[in-house]
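Notes to self after the call with IL:
- keep both proteins in one doc
- input above output, always
- annotate only the second one for now

Protein 1:
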Amino acid sequence: MRFEFSDRKELIDGILVILLVGLAVLPAALFVLTGYKSKDLLDEDGLYEGLAAIACGLTALFLVYKAFSLGRSDKLLLFWTLSLALSLLFIGGEEISWGQRLIGFETPQIIRENNFQEEFNLHNSTLIQSSNNALSVMLTQLLVAYLLIFPLVVHAFPTVRSITDYIRIPVPPLAVALVAITAKLISTQTYRLIYGTTETADVLSLGEAFETVLELCLCWVAVRYVNEASGTRSQGKLHH
């Protein structure tokens, strides 16, 4: 029996699912095979954090380029494209404290005095949260809602689908939802495999793998959205 992908998009989705699930399972696989707890991969300025920052930054630049090519003829498409670009730029910048540790600039005093880690970022700020990383946890939960729950609701209810089509909001493909739920299950089991519990000081560190996968999924959604929307516009122009 011969299996074939129905189109190029399905092939790309399949490859992305394998790669992202692989990233999610890597910390557990390394521990099982070598006993290594992946701290160098998951800590500040580690592989996962750097990968997420680079991907978000490059995707944001790609979206800005696409926005310029769109012009102002399709305001909804332009709005969502720029919204995704700003969101990814913010996420990528926050991941590396806007390049502070790479460039080596000092944190301004007013920010240092109001930051749990005395760094140049918002997600560790004491002004908007009572405990460190509360904002990061909230943003992760929002990403889970958008990448996992939202596409399931859209595909389950035609009325919701008609609304999202009308306002042109980016809807993650079901393959992204599959990655999100798989990565979450892997993340939970990784905690238990390594520590026997999720109540440890390394929970946030181990959660970096799950967080990175979600951010890469958002990049996937953004690129897919602008490419498909641009293709639809081009076909519409040809028909006219």
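Protein 2 (the one to annotate):
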Amino acid sequence: MPSPLLMLSFAAVTAVGAVLGWRLAGVRARFAGVATNAPVDGLPFAAATAAAFLGVVAFVATRPPAPASAGGAIVPTVIVAVAYLYFAAISLLLGEIDAATHRLPNAIVLPAYPVLGALFASACLAGGSWSAFGRAAAGGGLLFGFFWLVRAVGRGTLGGGDVKLAGVIGMVLGFAGWPALAVGTLAAFVFGGVAAAVLLLRGKATRHTAVAFGPFLLAGAWAGLLATGAAALG
């Protein structure tokens, strides 16, 4: 049975997610270019963010902590959890914006590089494994380069925002481990391919219809983290 302190932590993180989601609903509306009635339209996004935050903290709490070189494993685990919570928030935000506008705003994507980099480095300084930080850097570079190449060869198959988001996702998955990076990347293309096939079969799209890939990239990233969760704390 979970301890009262753990249950209180779950409740607190969920509440923070709800408040943050309420605030981010206005950001989503601004970038999506739609009018919003904050008291009404903010509720679904607040609920989604709260649920995502609860899922992240439950996921972290049930994972075996990574071996720590000093200072115990609690502090680096908490810092990595904060990184995942941040990634969860921008995942929801970017997914909705891209689905609505086929854009992944630089104002949201680019700050994720230094934010996640600083959080991962802090986790390592607090006693986590530096090999995980090296994988994050390598994963970000590899996925950015791969998607840049796909975009160059595919002549518009992917947007520039997809390439930049891929670098962020590569950092997150790389920190979790090489299996997470492989599974997350493959899952993104599988999800996108299945969705495109369904749209084609239902007559909702043609071979030339542009489909936002950002939501599938993000869904694939979380599939990679969940599928390889035993190593997800670096």
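Annotation: Residues 19 and 168 are 25 Å apart (CA to CA). The chain has a mean pLDDT of 86.
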